[in-house]
Design brief:
alpha+beta; about 250 residues; globular; five-stranded mixed beta sheet; 8 helices
């Protein structure tokens, strides 16, 4: 009888210990779950990858004050419809809200990869920047992206792999924008090895910055997760301004 009682008591103790462990486990789970919820409630959205890339912006086309506290860099391809949206839809708002107020400057770097005329247009734009200056570059830059509304009409993505930005088109556009006299300064720019090298250097830098698509947008060296979302870009800029992380 004594032996049986001992076994019963031992079993009760084991059962009790198991129940205590289960209760403690449940309470700990509830605590960590509620703590996680509290953290999620207080966390601010993450707009960038928080990895600071050292992007060389010397002698690059720039909109805005040179001493602006925030630098936004866009890597783009002139055949890229998303880059067209950035230029036509995002940039005007950025210029109004931040560039005109002296808070940011915007730098463009070439990352041609879609088709043959991607590189041709990039070299041509680089030539305009070197020969005609910064203001002329941005005028040409905007005109090319506005032209996308024509050749990507009805979302015809097949035009990505057609030679749309021909030398003839680029020359006609330049003549319309700047006049016949300026064309003499741009003669043979598509054969200029230095201009081709500049474009290649931009693309090499992009690869070093882990650019995998266009547009890729960086705010003070940190890549924005959603470059086609104005609120995300705004959030990244405001975050940099508030933190005093200026360049």
């Amino acid at each position: 009888m004594a032996k049986k009682a001992k076994k019963k008591i031992s079993g009760d103790r084991i059962f009790g210990i198991v129940m205590v462990v289960l209760v403690v486990a449940i309470l700990l789970s509830l605590f960590f779950f509620s703590d996680k919820l509290r953290k999620n409630d207080s966390d601010t959205p993450e707009y960038t990858d928080n990895v600071e890339h050292k992007i060389d912006i010397k002698n690059q086309p720039t909109i805005g004050e040179q001493d602006a506290p925030i630098t936004l860099v866009e890597y783009g391809d002139y055949k890229c419809p998303a880059c067209g949206y950035f230029s036509n839809g995002i940039m005007p708002q950025l210029e109004k809200d931040y560039v005109s107020t002296g808070k940011i400057k915007v730098v463009f770097k070439n990352y041609p990869f879609i088709y043959t005329d991607s590189t041709r247009a990039a070299v041509y734009a680089e030539g305009i920047y070197r020969k005609l200056g910064n203001d002329a570059f941005w005028k040409f830059h905007k005109a090319i992206y506005e032209y996308q509304n024509t050749y990507y009409a009805n979302q015809n993505s097949q035009n990505e792999h057609k030679d749309i930005l021909s030398e003839d088109y680029l020359n006609k556009t330049t003549k319309t924008l700047f006049g016949k006299d300026k064309m003499e300064l741009l003669r043979h720019i598509l054969d200029d090895k230095n201009l081709k090298q500049e474009v290649q250097m931009d693309r090499k830098q992009g690869r070093n910055d882990n650019v995998s698509s266009t547009p890729s947008v960086f705010v003070n060296g940190k890549e924005v997760y959603e470059p086609l979302n104005y609120d995300a870009i705004k959030g990244a800029i405001d975050e940099a301004l508030e933190s005093g992380n200026s360049k």
